[in-house]
Every structure is written in structure tokens, then in C-alpha cells.
């Protein structure tokens, strides 16, 4: 058993819970922060029943003071921390650029991007003081592929990738590691926070998540392996990994392929029509 310590934002459900269970199984002490206290306490009950030293803290990542309080509680209880997983996120509002309100933009950026910034800002001084530490920042394949009608979400996740690439070099001299995870569709509860200006789009995206062969537990396994090996990129979906490489090295081919995929996703199904015999002029 490792006895190491991990803090996970958005750890009460979905991918965050899968990560918490993975690390608990590996002998880590686990702290989860979430805005959903009911789910958070239920997850902690599961972890402690398995023998894990675990506790829940109500934490809204849009509030720097919440993260500061979490840090203080962790130091008081465990005298330090080994790993922070900045996982909390929302789906935001899908739709054309001229139909998504700026208030929706501000919300998704505040949670998905600035929430990760706040997590890194809060715990970097502790990691520097300790002389070690590790961040896992949860981004998305959406931040690499940038499909239309999802601009606010894409930008928020691309920002997480850019932040992670920056900190990879900035924090290396302090023995602080970074991994960034970019999953595509998988079975999760992200759709609960999804809104759309396009009729039926949320339902189509939800169906894609439900049909995915990749689970939250699979992604948690990949994240654990990446941290153990110090790998920066966590790209769990093979198809999206190939698309990303295609975009980097054959951008024109990527554009053609993306147009076909986007047409299937964003074009609403046509209603069935009944053929009738032509009526002769009379």
C-alpha cells in the first residue's frame, strides 16, 4: 500500500469518482471535493468501506477560497499531498457562435478553465515547499479537434491543454509533474450539465456517450498509468488519437474527414416521407 495522498475535484461522480476508486484501490488516501454533497458523501462511504482513508470537502472550483480551505484541511490531516486531479467540469451550452450567450461562455470558462487554473495556483506553493507533487488536468479531445457548435466548451478545454503544456516546462525544475487527459465520448454524467440551442443535439451527444466502448474506469486506469510513468498525454480513445495525429501531419485530410463526421452529428434526421402516386393534371 502506497500511503500517498490525492485530491480530486468533481470527485463525487462520473470520471472523478472512477479516479477516486482507482487510487483508493492502489492504497492512496483520497480527498474528493465537489459541489454535490449527497453524492460526495455516498462516494466517501464506498471508499471508507473498502478500508481507504478518505474524506469529502464541499468545494466549488469557481471560488479560490474553497480550494484554499481544502488545502488547509489536507495539510492538517495528512501533512502534505502527492497528487491533484483537476477534474471538475461542465458541458456548457452547444450552439452557433451567434446564439450562445456570453453568460454561458463565462460560466463554462469559469468552471472548466479557471477552475483548473485555481487548482494549480492553490497547490503549486505546497508542491514547491515539499519538493515534489503532480497535477493531472482533465481536458478533452474537444480541445484538440474543435468541432463546430461547441465553441465555448472547445475553448475551455483547449485552454486546459495550453495551461498544462505551459506548466509542464515551468514546474519541471521544482520536481512537479503534469499529465493532461483528453478523452472523447465515454459513459458519464456530463450530459446533466449540457444545454443546447439546437433541437435534439444534447440527446444525440448523450447517445454517443452511452454507446462508447470506453468507460470512466478505463480512463481512470490510463490516467493512473500515465502518472506512474510520468507521461504528459493521456489519449484514451484510439480513433481520436489517430484523428489528432492526422490533424497535425495531414491537416487537409483531417478537414475532409471531420466534415463527414460533423454532418452526421449536427444534421438533424429528416422525417420519413410517404410516397404517393402523382395526380394527373385535369
Automatic annotation (TrEMBL):
<comment type="similarity">
    <text>Belongs to the short-chain dehydrogenases/reductases (SDR) family.</text>
</comment>
<dbReference type="GO" id="GO:0016491">
    <property type="term" value="F:oxidoreductase activity"/>
</dbReference>
<keyword id="KW-0560">Oxidoreductase</keyword>
<dbReference type="GO" id="GO:0016020">
    <property type="term" value="C:membrane"/>
</dbReference>
<dbReference type="InterPro" id="IPR002347">
    <property type="entry name" value="SDR_fam"/>
</dbReference>
<dbReference type="InterPro" id="IPR036291">
    <property type="entry name" value="NAD(P)-bd_dom_sf"/>
</dbReference>
<dbReference type="Pfam" id="PF00106">
    <property type="entry name" value="adh_short"/>
</dbReference>
<protein>
    <submittedName>
        <fullName>SDR family oxidoreductase</fullName>
    </submittedName>
</protein>
